[in-house]
Every structure is written in structure tokens, then in C-alpha cells.
Design goal:
The structure holds 2 protein chains of 2 kinds. Chain A is α/β, with parallel strands linked by helices. Chain A has 10 helices and 18 strands. Chain A has helices spanning about 25-35, 45-50, 70-85, 95-100, 120-125, 175-185, 215-230, 250-260, 345-360, 370-375, and strands at about 15, 40, 55-60, 65, 85-90, 135-140, 160, 200-205, 215, 235, 240, 265-270, 295-300, 320-325, 330, 340, 380, 390. In chain A, strand 15 (about 330) and strand 16 (about 340) form a beta hairpin. In chain A, helix 6 packs parallel to helix 9 (about 345-360) and helix 9 (about 345-360) packs across helix 10. Mean pLDDT of chain A is about 85; it is low at about 1-10, about 40-55 and about 90-105. By secondary structure, chain B is α+β, with helices and mostly antiparallel strands. Chain B is built from 2 helices and 6 strands. Chain B has helices at about 25-30, 55-60; strands spanning about 10-15, 35-40, 45-50, 65-70, 75, 80-85. The chains are: A alpha/beta, B alpha+beta. Strand 9 (about 215) of chain A pairs antiparallel with strand 5 of chain B.
Amino acid sequence: MGARTSASRPPGGSLVLFPRGSGDGLPRRLQHATGISLDRAEYAGALESRGAIGQGVYFDRLDAALVHGDADQQRALGRFAEANGLLVEPERVLRSAHVRGAFDASPRLPLRDTRSATWGLQASGVLDCAYSGRGVRLAILDTGLDLRHPDFSDRAVRSRSFVAGLPVHDRNGHGTCCAGIAVGPARPRRAARYGVAPGAELYVAKVLDDDANGTDGNVLAGIDWAVRKGCAVISISLGTAAREGDGYSRVFERIAARALAAGSLLVAPAGNASQRPDSVAPVDHPANCPSVLGVGALNQRLALASFSNGGPDSRAGGLDLAAPGTAVLSAAPRPTLYQVASGTSIAAPFVAGVAALIAEARPGARGAALRALLLENTRPLPARGRHARARMVYAP
Amino acid sequence: MSVRDHERVNVAVAVSDDSRDSLCEVAAACRALGFEQTCTLSDIGVLTGSAHVAALPVLREVPGVMAVEVERPFRIQALARRRRTP
């Protein structure tokens, strides 16, 4: 769209939401009316790959833009927004990650767990974050939860089983692991901190049986429940393999778009079928739907894990961002209590937890706006090379 | 008609945005074509149930139906998990 400008620009911009499906017309008129240049952003890696930051980034799939302009341009933006009924919110809380565009201090790699926190929490700025996800509803759709786990027994957990004949209780361990990563407590009883958003309100939907089998029907019922409960973030750590060229599910895409419109962001794992660097599989269903956030797994060197999917797919969405997903400590059902797990399953609830932190920081940002903020606040991976475009989730 | 056409499969029927207020009518039209409905997911505008494979093209033509997809099995996306002794 517009011409690129220098990387320096005043701090604090505005998030502009256009009506759904407004296309390029309104953003172009916005540019004309305000003099603010807009660059089209492809979510992952777009800012980094440009090497220069424009005055604004237009997320065409979200019908949203983040713009920065001088005082006159901001006033013109206000007038334009009012005349056209656009929602504008100040960029007031989140750090402007795309200005800094790198970690505050280069982490010493590989990262390791300490007595107080897991390596993933250290890597993603969670430990320095002023937010805990308080007041934000976060749903985990999985094999359920050990509701009497000592790290969760004093939490108010809303739960429901969508698997006929089975209670919410998790006999598999996968669901308890995912819930722990997203919302585990600030001070666990017998482990280092492993949860990203300990203040979030946990909603647990059991959509997979205790052998971790499930179908679209269960998962859709779980999504419907979580949307109805007003969950700002819905993490679904499951998927099926997608083949290059098959495209994405129209049903799931429409549902994810409706969930976004209703204020719920769907997060799903990219899948584990790759053997990098030799082969990189396309992103799994449903993470390959454009409206679902597809998450890859990082290793302790902050590079994409060898198994993490994210290959090119001409007819489906790719990797949106990456999060810690190798050798990650979390909760396990009693009597084990704790486990260490790897997989993109682990990375997705990590992103869901960070989304809850951002949702607390920006109470007005839900759905597409929350997604835009989450992607805006990512960091480039320190490791360069083939996958330098992938970006890592980062706490507000 | 092949053998597979008689096979009954679980399906998800997504209703188009402009027909979400008439979810019940769309469901009734689908049932009249052999769709056995098990669930109405009104918040996301989806009907789940089962149908003969042969009926799927007809269901896709029902006014208000946006897409019909055969249910997929899901699996979790964890590679390795080991118990950790505190």
C-alpha cells in the first residue's frame, strides 16, 4: 500500500477496526484522509522481513490496522473514524515490540528451568509481566482436568464433558498438562512456576476421551460452549494432518470467524509431523484455518523444534507464531503431579495464556483485535536462517 | 449407487451467516433429506449429526447451508511426555 518510512516513529499509536469485509476501500480512504501510510501485514514475520516500519500496518484478514502518525494525523484519524463509524483504541499498554524488534537482552541459550520458573516463562517475558489474566476467561478443550490436583483444587474451574459417559476428570494427562501451561498457579505446591496466566478463569471442556480420541462433533460442541461462556481465548491442542493443496475446512474457518466476531480467539497447534530441516509438513487442521491461530513449537535454543509443522501450503493458512514447546514442565494428574512434555500441543496453550495476559491489559480488545495485538507483540527468533520469519509470542 | 453411498457418516453442517436466525428451519429441511440431527450449536451456527454419503451433495444444496463436512478423527499434538519427580 503506502510508501515505507523510517523505523523511528512516535510511541503510542492507534488500533483501528474497520467493518468486517470492508476490503481495501476504507483503508485507502483512511490513508488519503490522514496522510498515514499503511503497509499490508502478513501476520508472521511481515514486520521483521520488511526491515523498515511504516506508519501503519494493515491486517487485511482482520479488517484492522495499527497506525502511528503525528498529532495532526491523529486528529485527522479521529475525524475520519467518527465520520465512518470506525472503532479506534489507543495503543496504550502494550510495549511496541515492532520498534524494538528484538529481545531486551540476548538470552543465554539454551534456556533452562530454574528453581523459580520454567525456561518458557523466562524466554517470553511472562515473569516481568504486570498482568496475570485476571478476569479473563480461558477455555481448554482437551482430555479434561484433574480437578483435585493440588495446584488447581482451590481454583474456581468451570467444566463440562462433551464425551458421552465420561466425567471431566483427566485420566490421560494431556488436558491437565495443557491447562497447567495456560493458567497454572503463580506458586505451585511442589514445582517451579509453569503457568502463563495464573489469574485467568479456567473453563475446561473434555472433548477427547481418556485415550485422547475425539471427533469434530465433540470439538465443535466444546467451541460452542466456550463461546457461549464468553471465553476470550479457546485453546484446542489437537488436530489432524492436512495435505498440501487440500485447503482448509470451510466449516471450521466459518466457526473460527464467528467465534472471533463473538469475542473468542481460537488457538491450535501446528502439528508435529515435520523432521526439520529435511522435511516440513503443512500446518494441521484446524490450525490451518486463517481465522485460527496456528502455533509452532520452539526448543530451548529458541529455534523452531525439528518436529514443528509450518511448511508452505498454497491453499491454507501457515504458521502464525511460535511458543515454547520442547521439554516443558507442567501439571500431571495425581499421583504423578508434574510432567515434562514436548509438542506443538504444549505451545498452543502457552500462546493462549499470553493472549489472556494481553486481554487483561486491553479489556476492550477481543476477537480480531486481541489476535492483532498478540501478533503485534511477538519477537523475532534469535536464531537466523531458514525460519527467521517465524516470530515468538511475548508477554505484554 | 455404490456400497459407500449407503454408509452413514457423522457430519457437521455449517449454516450460512444470513440463515443463522432460521437455524431450526434449515435443520428441518436437512432432516427431511435424511439428516439425523444430534446437536444444534446455535452460538456457532452448526448442526451435527449423521447422513448417508449419498445424501451429502443434496444436503449441500439446502438453502441456508454453507458447507457440509464429514467428521474427522482428532489426535492430541504431544510428542513425548515423561513424569517428573518434584
